[in-house]
Amino acid sequence: MRSEAALPKWASKPCMMGIDEAGRGPVLGPMVYGCVYCACSYQKALSTLNFADSKTLKEEKREELFENLKTDESIGWAVDVIDPRELSSKMLKKHKINLNEISHDSAIGLVSRVLNLGVLLTEVYVDTVGDAEKYRIKLSERFPSIKFVVAKKADSIYPVVSGASIVAKVTRDRALRDWVLDETAENMHRNFGSGYPGDPETKSWLDDHKHSVFGFPTLVRFSWGTCTSYSKHLVEVLWESDAADEDGLSERTRKRQLKLTNVGFTASKRKSEEIESSGKGRCKFFQARKLELLSEF
Amino acid sequence: MGTVNLRGKGESLPDLTGKVHQLPCCIKYDGPTAVSQYFKPKPTGVEIDGLRVEEAYFRGRKLQGTTVPLPQGYSGFVLGKTSLGKQANIPEENPNCWEMKAKFQNVTVWNHDSLPSQNDAFLRAFHWFAVAKSLHQPVTAEDLESSSISQKLE
After folding, report:
1. Minimum mean pLDDT range among A76-80, A261-265, B63-67
2. Which of the four pLDDT bands, split at 50, 70 and 90, describes residue A47?
3. Alpha-carbon distance A67 to A78, whole Å?
4. Which H or E run includes A121?
5. Residue among A4, A18, A6, A87 at smallest CA distance from A46
6. Chain A residue with minimal CA distance to B33?
7. Where are the domains of chain A?
8. How far is CA B75 from the centre of its chain?
9. Nearest-5° angle of CA B98, CA B102, CA B108?
10. What is the pTM of this model?
């Protein structure tokens, strides 16, 4: 997504860019990374546009500023919308990717995308995610020609980051407002609230949409702590990837948990966890294919 | 020793083809649930090893899977205990006697975090069909003759 079709002239002069995120904390909906860039010489004009940290502005004001920003030919912008399914699944992979890494990758992706457009980026301002200095080094190693400034509250210090925060926040709000639920259960509604775990509207939406087997609709970030508090209402589901997580498990328990992958009967004589056929004691052909002979069932 | 009754009512059985999923996890629940409303497999357009890859999400995990047909001449069955009571709900069941409750002609096999492959244990289990066929095929006079010839040649 980009504002201009053709590369503007100013893009070949030294440019600065701000990057900010919206929707990092919410338990549902996408996380959005946004960026705004312009010629370094436009910096003064930028500060007169009254961008401020998007959280301090009312929704109508943010929408208005976003529209102004889109029509301003001296400014370019881009967004990266990270689907809640992607957030949950990356954070719940066998090799888990944490939210900071996902955030870093998204910011790096935006820098690459703008550079690939042919914009001469020389300075990039980013709000800190995790340790500021480590993040700065990571970005600088990746893009040696760019000077990175990683700062806490960058969105209220640097107008270019404030602009990015508006782009991100408006995009996130619209994405949530227009979200098409994948699930087709009856009595579903769209009063998501802000998505923040503390928001009473979000809480009641979660209550209304929890499902004992499926958990929640895929709009929800299952990897969030908020969801764990619902787990007592849900049917237990064991994954192979969870077993490696828990240190201090006895070898037996670990083996049992690792045995979850396959088909089988859950007969009364077996523990419910041991559902995998093993082919134990049979010839190699059967062992390799986990085929077991069942006479008692 | 359990027995499975595969006779009769074959035609009237509910057909679950396209609705049988093998998930890479243990769900500690037995019973009906709103699968089609919550579990939404989508084709990815990717094909690997001749397997068409689908994706779906369950409990926040991304699953990648493929639908495999059961070989010609084989059918899948959902078995349930034969009920002895007049009403189906009465817990009076024959403990070892099973009967067909539904049938299916394919299975969608799902992996967590890995693409489906012909090396997945579930697909490898299908090798047994070919081996079983050779093992159980009646031996004809010609077969015996040709094997005795090859023994003489050695």
Report:
1. A261-265
2. confident
3. 14
4. strand A121-127
5. A18
6. A213
7. 9-177, 238-297
8. 8
9. 115
10. 0.82
What was the pLDDT predicted at A25? 93
- Euclidean distance between the first and final Cα of chain B, in Å? 45
ipTM score assigned to the predicted complex: 0.82
Chain A residue nearest residue B42, CA to CA: A182
What percent of chain A is modeled with pLDDT above 90?
A: 65
Does residue A266 or residue A281 have the better pLDDT? A281
Q: What domains can you pick out in chain B, each with its CATH number?
A: 3-117 (2.40.128.680)
- The percent of residues above 70 in pLDDT, for chain B, comes to 86
CATH classification (class only), A9-177: alpha beta
Contact A263, A277 (CB under 8 A): yes
Count of C-beta atoms within a 10 Å radius of residue A97:
15
Dump the DSSP string for A199-233: -HHHHHHHHHH-BTTTBS-TTB-TTSHHHHTTGGG
Option in B27, B125, B128 nearest A235 (CB): B27
Question: In angstroms, what CA-CA distances link A10 with A3, A41, A119?
Answer: 14, 9, 9
Contact B136/B93 with Cβ under 8 angstroms? no
Give the dihedral sign, CA B40/A222/B28/A203: negative
Nearest to A235 among B28, B34, B60 (CB): B28
Residue B37: beta bridge partners?
none
The answer to whether the annotation marks A21 as part of a ligand binding site is yes
